[in-house]
Amino acid sequence: MKFKFIPSPKKFENKEKIILRDFLAMERTSLANERTLFSYIRASLYMAIGGVAILEYEGFATFSWLSYAVFVLSLILIFIGVFRYRRLKKKLDTYYRSMNIDSEK
């Protein structure tokens, strides 16, 4: 089963020597990947806080199921974020290794 919101990775091989512009573009991609992961984490935490607020507010006692649904969505969101981060990191590391570049700088 394929999900539309998680695009499938595409195979890419570079046959040319890497230049500074390409290296900097890969670094920007790596930093953007980290920023995206932090955005997923932030959104997940906001959803969890919203779930706690719904659960603790006495006027919404009949909507306690909603708070649990929000918690589940929060967990799903964080798992999607970590999955996408690790997949792109693995892809970048593979590319770095193929170009004999240390990716841990």
Automatic annotation (TrEMBL):
Give start and end of each DUF202 domain.
28-90
| Keyword 4Fe-4S in record | no
Q: Which UniProt keywords are given for this protein, alphabetically ordered? A: Membrane, Transmembrane, Transmembrane helix
Q: Which GO terms describe its cellular component?
A: endomembrane system
Q: Pfam family example for this protein? A: DUF202
| Transmembrane regions listed in the UniProt entry | 37-57, 63-83
Where found, per UniProt?
Answer: Endomembrane system
Which domain of life, per UniProt? Answer: Bacteria
Q: Which InterPro entries match?
A: DUF202
Annotated membrane topology: Multi-pass membrane protein
For this UniProt entry, what is the primary localization, expressed as one broad class? membrane
Tell me the protein's name: DUF202 domain-containing protein
In its UniProt entry, the species of origin is given as Planktosalinus lacus
